[in-house]
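Lab notebook, bench 4. We co-purified these components, and the gel suggests they stay together. Before we commit to crystallization screens, I want a quick structural picture of the whole thing.
Request: model the full complex, all chains together.
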Amino acid sequence: MNATATDEVTAASAAPASSPGLRPVLTKAAGWVVKIFVLLIAVEIISTFLTSDSLQWSTVWEYMFDDRVLTGVWQTIKLTVIAMVLGCLIGLALALMRLSHSVLLNAVAGAYVWVFRGTPLLVQILFWFNLASFLPDLSVGIPFGPEFGSSPTNDLITPLVAATLGLGLNEGAYMSEIFRAGILSVDQGQSEASAALGMTRGQAMRRIILPQAMRVIVPPTGNQVISMLKGTSLVSIISMNELLYTVQVIYSRTFETIPLLVVASIWYLVLTTVLSIGQYFIERHYSRGATRNARPSVAQRLRLTGRAESHDGFFSSPATQPADGRVVDQETK
Amino acid sequence: MTTVTDPVTARTTATRPLVQLEGLCKRYGSLRVLDGIDLEVATGEVVCIIGPSGSGKSTMLRCVNHLEKPDQGLVRVDGEVIGVHQRRGRYVELPASELARQRTDIGMVFQAFNLFGHMTVLENIIEAPVRVAGQPRKEAEARARELLAHVRLEGKENSYPRQLSGGQQQRVAIARALAMRPKVMLFDEPTSALDPETVGEVLSVMKLLADEGLTMLIVTHEIEFARDVADRVIFIDGGRIIEQGPPSAVIEAPQHERTKKFLSRMRGGVEEG
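Here is the predicted assembly.
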């Protein structure tokens, strides 16, 4: 009720300020035309989806929780996690190499990023899958020296391994830039203070630099995870039984192409939504101490309760209210 | 304002100096930042280093804990050579872990505070005692609270650095350095980044430490503070020590033209501000 009253007051006070001509009325009318137009298009699109015969919603629901589809979803999640972990490890190593003073380490890291960022991911995946035709045997040993063991490449490079290598090594190139930017964003004084207290460089990196770099690292990494999740669909080309390949296998027999692609799309949307929510909480964790005000000011709180809207929340919707409340509790504790 | 009348009398021991700088030289390209600095600091002595900006005073201070590597010359703290060791008649860099161990004896306070932004005040102070010195957390926390009381910041344990004023942050930084029980404390322009109204609270904490007998090397632009607190004032220009002695000599009756010029400029600046 308060909110309505305030709105009325604002509207009333705003009215005399604007010019008395027709312009505001026309602008307002034009605004309504645009809104109605957009609404009509949205309704049209949604109704096409809901009522289309070729879409067969009953088929969609039938396959939504099909065992094969669920296995595909699980494979997609697994592949995303493994490739992302591999990418982060490689990325961190490359970032530290590029930040080191060694010319050799710098050059190697630079070359890695150049190659893996400069060629298409799909080509890299195919390359790893076909590694056997390039290197028939893989061996462990010292270059030009003794060999400790070897094995046929085809036995080692399963679709899962090829997919992991393709996605993970490529991801490493991107993650290295993200880590590097994050580490460089932390003030030089932080490592000097750590050194002066007697910390080793490793301790300073783990305890002081990286935790503060995370604030810069997490948001783009969240985007990378979401890209990776969708990127896993590329490995359907090497018959790795992830989500897309699974539905492809099903619709190649039943010809229910569109419903099954909708099934896959819904699952991708569910997974990316979950990831976005997770990202929000991780970002909040790493923003500790980053802002000066621990708790919202009285004015902010009044606005929160009165208008039930917040701009810094997830999705910027009223649903964030309890979340903001918890932030306050944690920091006062 | 009452002051300690004659702090020099507090010094009686004539044993080995706690900090020794021998012929320190440092160049950046063609610029000689340090041009043969020799200095001995006794236990409990408070030395203020003054000089124009770019004179090398901060570089000299940073050589003491090897944040800056001198091109020539040696630093000794409590008899131990810092940052390098002799191998086959030549001085080479110490392993990183050895240097880290040596640095635990040398506390440092920076112009920009450099508190760890992601940690609370208490976490900032106990980080090195727990992670580096291996103290039990409980013990380190108790000591941290004592130190916070000492720098008059009780009740700020759980604040984050950005929630504190500059003067409060610098006092936390002092407590953090003291938590390692260093033999000597280095202050690199500790009040230069502060608002004028918070300079006093930091200087009074430093004066308290000086009165307690802590050995301190202080690079500062606060001439009045140097006169009140220092046992010895050193004027540096062009990477050399131009003049040194008790404040009554260097500040009240400087002998060298360059010292006189610098001091009159500083005083002028203070009056204008």
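The longest helix of chain B spans residues 196-211. Worth comparing against the SEC data before the next meeting. Confidence is low (pLDDT under 50) at residues 1-13 of chain B.
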